[in-house]
Write a structure and sequence with these properties.
- With 191 residues, this protein is mainly beta.
- The protein contains two helices and eleven strands.
- The strands form four sheets. The chain has a four-stranded antiparallel sheet with strand order 7-4-9-10, with no helix packed on it. The protein has a three-stranded mixed sheet with strand order 8-3-11, with no helix packed on it. The chain has a two-stranded antiparallel ribbon with strand order 1-2.
- A hairpin with a 5-residue loop joins β1 and β2.
- The chain starts with a strand and ends with a helix.
Length: 191
């Protein structure tokens, strides 16, 4: 028990009304959240973490891009049968994030339930939180997701969760960005 002085309102002519009482710790904590303008019943819970890892440049890879450049990180269930929704043989992304330039590499990322794609927003989080994930990253020079440039860097990595929904038990993904190679450069109009 501890003494506590609370502002309980304004009286006539703006006089602050105070009440002093001996309170339990729970009451003190509840009053602190209320006095900070956040009512405990309306406080936003932290978003659940879906994926973690680091995106880094492969030896010899260089970043070419303007101030509009962006890093796109996309995660999908690693097992072909693990996706709740599939389009043909390609699994619909579980979550995506866009990080605007400037970006310093290595870049640590964390995707949360706020990053879930529309197809997964209505799915029970517990059914996907412990799935191993394939992480794809692309450094896009013009920052437009719909375009593919010859100088864009791409990479993939695996986030191993080993059936755990606890992020501290996961082996975070390491994604090494590299150039697209000859075929990728030809397909995107590069030389």
């Amino acid at each position: 028990m501890m003494p506590l002085s609370l502002v309980i309102g304004l009286g006539p002519l703006g006089v602050v009304l105070r009440s002093t009482a001996v309170c339990r710790r729970e009451v003190v904590l509840a009053s602190l959240s209320f006095s900070c303008g956040v009512h405990a019943a309306h406080a936003e819970p932290p978003s659940a973490i879906i994926a973690t890892g680091v995106v880094q440049l492969q030896n010899g890879a260089t970043v070419i891009g303007a101030a509009e450049a962006a890093l796109y990180v996309t995660v999908r269930p690693a097992e072909a049968g693990g996706g709740a929704l599939q389009a043909g043989t390609k699994v619909v992304p579980l979550a995506t994030a866009r990080v605007a330039a400037p970006i310093a590499f290595p870049y640590k990322f964390q995707l949360t339930e706020a990053d879930l794609t529309a197809e997964y927003k209505s799915i029970e989080l517990s059914s996907i939180k412990s799935l191993d994930l394939l992480v794809s990253a692309r450094f896009d020079g013009d920052g437009v997701a719909a375009t593919r440039g010859p100088d864009d860097l791409v990479g993939r990595g695996l986030l191993r969760k080993a059936g755990s929904s606890e992020p501290l038990r996961w082996k975070p993904a390491v994604v090494e960005l590299q150039g697209r190679g000859l075929t990728g450069r030809l397909l995107t109009g590069g030389k």
